[in-house]
Amino acid sequence: MIFDLLLVAALLWSAVRVLTTPDLFRAVVLFIVFGLLMALAWARLDAPDIALAEAAIGAGLTGALLLDAVAHLHKKRQEQSP
Amino acid sequence: MKTLLNVAVLFLAGAFGLALGWAILDLPVAAVNLPEQLTAQLDMSGVVHPVTAVLLNFRGYDTLLEIAVLLLALLGILALPRHVSDHQHRPFTANPVLQTLARVLVPLMLLVAGYILWAGAHRPGGAFQAGAVLAGAGVLLHLAGLLPAWVTPGRTLRAGLAVGLLVFIAVAVALMAQGTLLQYPPGWAGALILMIEASLTFSLGLILAGLYLILADSRAQA
Amino acid sequence: MNAALVYALTGTALFVLGVAGLILQPHLLRKILAFNIMGSGIFLVMVGLAQRAGTPDPVPQAMVLTGIVVAIAATALALALARQLLDMSGEMRLPEEKSGKDRLDV
What we know:
The complex is a heterotrimer.
Chain A: H1 2-20, H2 24-44, H3 48-80
Chain B: H1 2-26, H2 34-41, H3 50-58, H4 60-79, H5 96-119, H6 127-143, H7 155-176, H8 189-220
Helix pairs in contact in B: 3-4, 4-7, 4-8, 5-6, 6-8, 7-8
Chain C: H1 3-24, H2 28-50, H3 58-89
């Protein structure tokens, strides 16, 4: 139960940080952390199938897509203001 | 003015959250015991793992529509105008360590995907997780510079993207002859589910990798 | 108050956080992040609520598994559209929110 409460607190804290961090890149990295914490939560909820999918898709692939988008955005910014 | 609006939104969201939490605590226990019904029917489903039985047998239409939604999302991304430039075939200057690592890891990932697919019948695992591992292998190959980004998928690739949906629809239509959609005859259920799952894994891997590889392509023109 | 119920309540909190982020953040990439957090909250509510009796329930688990895969498809499509907007207008935010520049943007 203590572990559950700690995990829940970490989930909420990382979600708040994702939404409020000024730096976009940091927000995306925190989102990946959030996805991995979600995978832990699924494992705690006796749902190993979802834990596997969340770690691979929710954290891994979504993270890759978002990081790629941030890189694209930064490249665009640098072109606009050399 | 702006901050006032923010505070109002935050206040309303907080009130909404409290109402939702209260509703959850107040909710009566469901009258239908789904897990019990599922256990009673499990030996008819052709697989031993309950989640796979729900995904591919009892609620097979969910999965059918899901692969259709994925294919539609990919088509939507492909339909957006993209500027195809000349230098997308430029040689990547990828890290040699990363390349070696990718060459070692990708065959292992294929093996793991095959195992997860096979394990789905009797323990956690199945088409989605295996497809995600395949897609991860694709992304890794791209990052190591061993796999170019997709510009326009060729005919073979398009067939590969659609094969999961097509096999699923073919099975569904063939079973319609019995009168109900996606109700497998008990003797065949295991084999049919494995066939659907194998084609789903293949297509899911390609589609999920495609979501990344097509978007990564538009980086080349920036 | 068992563990599954705690996760369900966390799910509502995440959902509300996502809604607030979706409304308040002008940047489209942040809206996509908020939308994903919202989705994760809904998934937690679905599974946590069904399992509050203490036994695992495979039906909502299978539905959430489907939901995760659909969520990444929606995210990828949203990112593609946001990039299209960036290429066309040089901004990754909706036209009607352009006036509200605040320091949270890159």
